[in-house]
Amino acid sequence: MIKRFGLCLALSMISVISLSYPGFCESEITKQFLEAYDQKNAIKMSEVIKANKDKVPDEIRAMVEEALKPETKQEDRDSKFFVADMMARAYKDETGDVETLKFVKRKEFDSKLGAQVRSTPQNGVHIVEFPMATPEVKNIFRPDNIIIKAGETVRWVNKDEQGHIFASMPLIGVGGIFTPRIEPGKSWEFKFEKPGEYYYICFIHHGMIGKITVE
Ligand SMILES: [Cu+2]
What we know:
Elements (H helix, E strand, L loop, with lengths): L1 H18 L8 H11 L3 H10 L4 H13 L5 H22 L3 H13 L5 E2 L6 E6 L14 E4 L3 E7 L7 E3 L18 E6 L3 E7 L6 E6 L1
Parallel strand pairs: 1-3, 2-4, 3-8
Antiparallel strand pairs: 4-6, 5-7, 7-8
Helix pairs in contact: 2-3, 3-5, 4-5, 4-6, 5-6
Bound molecules: copper (II) ion.
Copper (II) ion (CU) binds next to loops.
């Protein structure tokens, strides 16, 4: 145990110095991958993935679980997601299998959302607002993570002082939402016929994200 802790610590220190990925207690595969990354050696990066093809998806999933632990610091969480994403891309390039990359992307997206809530329609539609920006909070969807039923409509209402444009992300969920610029005081509606998870993002403010789960 002590030995293992020591190794972790040593690896973390290497990470801090040479890789700027604090908080990593990575396995041999991740370590080799990060070394190759640090050397900007793309060929070596794909070789590491190729040589460990069978183990890589589990390795990435474990890294994501680690990232999502409540005790993981935000900075470490970001680093882990960054590395998991990079490894999942390399794995996709090597094998053509995109599922692990989708998994990482979905989990990272979910980790940035508020708690999922079942929405109650008001006069037949679900309302999501772009609230007026304050010095502390700006460019958000509120609520940002709702569950509705197939066939129901969501109306996005702009109560902010600036316009927003957003679209759903077909790589990780269901596509089909693509809005015009929704100006202050205006709204835009979408009827969700198809069940599934709709992850969406503002084109202007990339931290402005939301999700609609359609049952
Ligand atoms: Cu926006």
